[in-house]
Amino acid sequence: MRIETRNLLSAFLVEALDDHVAAAALRCLAAYSRAVRNTPPAMSVDRFLLPVGVTERDAVLAYLRGHPLLSWDLRGRCGRVTLAPAFAVEYAVIVPRLIRYGAVLAEWQPDATASALTTALRKGALLFNHRLFFEVHEVLEAQWVKETGDERRFLQGLIQVAVAFYHLENGNLRGARSLLQEGLAKLSLYVPAFLGVESGEFVAALEGYRSFLAGLAPEELPPLDQTQIPLLRLSETSRERIGYKPLQ
Fold it and tell me: Exposed, middle or buried by CB within 10 Å (0-12, 13-18, 19+), for 30?
């Protein structure tokens, strides 16, 4: 996937986690993607907008009409929509990603009472567990720049771990090893839990994965098995600060 496409998709999801119109629009794209078989279909506008309610349709249509991912033909009674030609060559990687985005939105439950840090961690955990590692980076980095001290270092550790797995997806063993080691060095200071993240079990599982990578030559790197990546779990009390070592 081109960097420009990756960034465009990621920005769409990040916006959708905070904006109900963007979320409804992304649900339409996820449903459209589930209808793709061999090539992106030209779909009637009415069918494309089925995932959203009648009251949302105008706002969602206005949002999507300007989105570069789609191409519109509104001539005739119904109109048609399809993936824009500029992205057609990448549809095989775009389509499963949009479907995964739809799954994320189905699970995401905004909490207006939560702090910005807690919200970022909730988003980051959800995205990590759906193996959307670049998107984890985008969400957590936006909060990392606002934090100081332990919170900043802990977020950086999570970001580095996520980017390590992003590198593995792209076959970059050297980059993955380096960032996994750096991330673990930070996260291991904050066990068994910190800021509502169950870090102890997560760090232990990542140490095992680091050992696995350490024994591989670059040419031996297998395709990333996402089932072997630990889940990032949150505790019920998302604001607790247990078992961490303060910055000196």
Answer: buried
List of domains in the chain = 3-107 (1.10.10.10), 116-228 (1.10.3450.10)
Report phi then psi at 25, rounded to 5.
-65, -40
The CA distance from 88 to 120, in Å, is 32
pTM, to two decimals: 0.91
Burial class (CB in 10 A: 0-12, 13-18, 19+), 203: buried
Partner residues linked to 70 by β-bridges: 83
Q: What is the pLDDT of residues 74-105, one digit of tens each?
A: 886 678 999 999 998 899 999 999 999 999 99
Residues 185-233 have pLDDT tens digits of 999 999 999 999 999 999 999 999 999 998 888 888 888 888 899 999 9
> What is the spatial distance between Cα 86 and Cα 115, in angstroms, rounded to a whole number?
39
Torsions phi, psi for 67 (to 5 deg): -85, 130
